[in-house]
UniProtKB/TrEMBL annotation:
Keyword Phosphoprotein: no
Keywords: Signal
UniProt similarity note: Belongs to the phosphate/phosphite/phosphonate binding protein family.
Protein name: Phosphonate transport system substrate-binding protein
InterPro entries recorded: PhnD (IPR005770), Phosphnate-bd (IPR017797)
Domain of life: Bacteria
One Pfam family matching this protein: Phosphonate-bd
Length: 302
C-alpha cells in the first residue's frame, strides 16, 4: 500500500511538473552584446510580439547583455529560456555544463551553407593590403567569447603569419567590446586592424550578405569604402539557437517549429533578428559544434 501511495505521489508530481513547464507565463530571451542596446531591442521587438501572439505568454522579456558572457551566464543559471549564441559562446556554455542548454537550429546562408567567416579589416588609408602587414601593429579582437572575433583567429591566424604566434607578430592586442564597437575602434585608430564576422557571401563592398559589417552598413554607421579586408578565415559553423534544457519537450518542439516557419510567417522580423540575408533555419545538435568545442577547450579552456 505504501509503495502504491509513493508511486502515485511521484506520478502526480511528474504531471504537475509537465503542466508547469507547458504553462510558461514568461519567456525570457537573452540577446548577445556587440551592438548598441537600443538597436538590439528594436530588432527584437517584433520577435517579442510574435512570441506572445503565438504562444500566449503573458510576458516575453528581452535581456540585452553588455557582452557575450552575460547571456551565457544567464543560460547556465537558468534565468534565460532562449538565446542565439555564437559557436564559441555555446562551446563555453557546454564546457561549463553540457546539460544546461540544447542547440536546436542555426541559420542557412543564401548560398546554402551553414557557416560564416572571421574577417580582418583595417582602414583603407592605412596602406595595409594583406594580413602580414599587421606586423608590429595593434590588433583588436571583438569579445573573448566570440568565435569569429577571437577563437578562430587565435587558432588559424598563426598559419597565415608564417607560423608565428600572434602576440609575437603584432605590437599589442586588445578587445573592442563587441563586434560593432571593434570596427568603430579600427576606424578611430585605436586598433590598426580588427577581427569581426561576415557571411563571406556576396561582395565586401556591400558588407557581404550578412554579418556585423552588413548590419553596420544597413544602419548607416559604416561606409565600406573606408575599410579594406586583410584576411578571411576558413568557414565557421553558424551559431545556434539554444533553449533551456529543462524546458518541456513539447515546448522545445513548438519553439523549433515557430522559428523554422518565421522566414515565411514574418520575413521582416526574421531579417531584423538575424541581421542580413539568410534563406532560413536548419536543425542542428551538439555534434555540429564539436570541432568548436574541442578548439575552445584546447585553446582557451572552459
Amino acid at each position: 500500500m505504501l509503495k502504491k501511495t509513493l508511486l502515485a505521489t511521484v506520478a502526480l508530481m511528474s504531471l504537475a511538473g509537465v503542466a508547469a513547464a507547458e504553462d510558461l507565463k514568461e519567456f525570457r530571451v537573452g540577446i548577445l552584446g556587440g551592438e548598441n542596446e537600443a538597436d538590439r531591442l528594436r530588432n527584437y521587438q517584433c520577435l517579442q510580439d510574435d512570441l506572445k501572439k503565438e504562444f500566449g505568454f503573458e510576458k516575453v522579456s528581452l535581456f540585452p547583455a553588455a557582452d557575450y558572457d552575460g547571456v551565457i551566464q544567464g543560460l547556465l543559471g537558468g534565468t534565460l529560456d532562449f538565446a542565439e549564441l555564437g559557436a564559441s559562446g555555446y562551446a563555453k556554455a557546454y564546457l561549463s555544463d553540457p546539460k544546461a542548454v540544447e542547440p536546436i537550429l542555426t541559420t542557412v546562408q543564401t548560398d546554402g551553407s551553414m557557416g560564416y567567416h572571421s574577417v580582418m579589416v583595417a582602414r583603407k588609408d592605412s596602406g595595409m593590403t594583406k594580413v602580414t602587414d599587421i606586423k608590429g601593429k595593434k590588433l583588436g579582437f571583438a569579445d573573448p567569447d566570440s568565435t569569429s572575433g577571437y577563437l578562430i583567429p587565435t587558432v588559424t591566424l598563426p598559419e597565415a603569419l608564417g607560423g608565428v604566434p600572434i602576440k609575437e607578430f603584432v605590437a599589442s592586442t586588445g578587445f573592442g567590446g563587441g563586434h560593432e564597437n571593434l570596427v568603430l575602434e579600427v576606424l578611430k585608430g585605436t586598433f590598426d586592424a580588427g577581427t569581426t564576422w561576415a557571411s563571406g557571401v556576396g561582395e565586401f563592398k556591400d558588407g557581404y550578405t550578412s554579418g556585423n559589417l552588413r548590419k553596420m552598413v544597413d544602419k548607416g554607421e559604416l561606409n565600406m569604402d573606408d575599410l579594406v579586408e586583410l584576411w578571411q578565415s576558413p568557414l565557421i559553423p553558424n551559431g545556434p539557437i539554444v533553449v533551456r534544457s529543462s524546458m518541456d519537450a513539447d515546448m522545445k518542439t513548438r519553439i523549433k517549429d515557430f522559428f523554422t516557419a518565421l522566414p515565411k510567417t514574418d520575413a521582416a522580423c526574421f531579417a531584423a533578428v538575424e541581421g542580413g540575408d539568410y534563406t532560413g533555419y536548419a536543425e542542428v545538435n551538439v555534434d555540429f559544434y564539436k570541432p568548436i568545442i574541442d578548439a575552445r577547450k584546447a585553446t582557451i579552456g572552459g
